[in-house]
Write a structure and sequence with these properties.
The chain has about 280 residues and is of the alpha/beta class. It has helices at about 15, 25-35, 40-50, 65-75, 85-100, 135-145, 170-185, 195-205, 225-235, 235-240, 245-260, and strands at about 55-60, 80-85, 105-110, 120-130, 150-160, 165, 205-215, 265-270, 270-280. A seven-stranded mixed β-sheet has the order 3-2-1-4-5-9-7, with helices on both faces. The model is unreliable at about 1-5 and about 5-15 (pLDDT under 50).
């Protein structure tokens, strides 16, 4: 464990905040996402020039997040913290850390909006696909800035879901989009937050702000090719509770989408991904 062990007690019900809820299926999707978005995350870390001996925190790390990537960058003599509000994810991430022997990594349970961790503790404060999934993302961003030391970096990787390509088109994707618009933003989450990151970073007081967009096309067999169907499954409890669809329709829709995704001629570009980074002003 790190020499200076951190204790955080600001705990929140993840189902009340995180737009995709808490379920074993969602946890497995997040585990896969760590590999699926590794290239984009590596590129983002290149932009902030994280070095051995630095300290970094991954807010909303889920069961894995970028804990391993951060460990590789700051070792030796560095320090990494993974933070998540879901106790199941904290347990999974802690098991990963223990099994991999990552002695400089600690995992804590806390609310990313109010971590109760000391201000100015980290050279890098990172979040991936977190700001898009919570209400009032500026609360999280303000906490990210607070946790960053003067001269340190804030960085995030977030989607922008307005533009997607599923070609040749199938009407099942129209219905999926209708349901997504109903369930995902129900608590104030913003699936279009990617384009806003630069503006939000500057409003939070960051400087040297950078922004990049990536559009990935996923071939047959790639696990992220099914992201739309996977998100539909994750949102099933919310859709049923809202009365937006019943079990029979969701089963039929899931089957139709996955069958279409098996077509090798189908082009799948689910969304844009925005990489954003900014520096906290140094003390003058």
């Amino acid at each position: 464990m790190p020499q200076d062990t951190i204790h955080a007690h600001a705990v929140v019900d993840p189902n009340a905040v995180y737009s995709l809820g808490s379920s074993p299926g969602e946890s497995q999707r997040l585990k896969r996402q760590a590999d699926e978005l590794a290239l984009e995350s590596e590129t983002l870390l290149d932009r902030v020039r994280l070095r051995p001996g630095d300290s970094a925190i991954d807010l909303g790390c889920g069961p894995r997040g970028i804990i391993e990537l951060l460990h590789d960058r700051v070792s030796p003599r560095g320090r990494v913290v993974g933070l998540d509000s879901d106790p199941a994810h904290v347990a999974m991430a802690s098991e990963l850390v223990a099994s991999a022997g990552l002695d400089d990594v600690e995992v804590v349970q806390a609310d990313a909006r109010c971590t109760a961790l000391p201000a100015g503790s980290f050279d890098l404060v990172h979040a991936r696909t977190l700001l898009a999934t919570v209400p009032q993302p500026m609360q999280v961003l303000a906490e990210m800035v607070r946790l960053t030391r003067p001269g340190g970096w804030v960085a995030s990787l977030e989607p922008d879901a307005e533009h997607s390509i599923y070609y040749p088109h199938h009407k099942a994707f129209d219905r999926l989009r209708e349901l997504f618009v109903v369930a995902f933003p129900r608590n104030g989450a913003d699936p279009l937050i990617g384009r806003r990151l630069g503006q939000l970073y500057r409003l939070a007081g960051l400087e040297d702000v950078g922004l990049e967009a990536r559009a990935a096309v996923y071939p047959p067999g790639h696990s992220r090719r099914t992201i739309a169907a996977d998100l539909l499954r994750a949102m099933r409890p919310q859709l049923l509770a809202l009365g937006a669809a019943d079990e029979a329709e969701l089963d039929s829709l899931d089957a139709a989408i996955r069958k279409h995704l098996d077509d090798p001629d189908l082009v799948v570009m689910p969304n844009l991904m925005f990489l954003a980074w900014g520096r906290k002003p140094s003390v003058r």
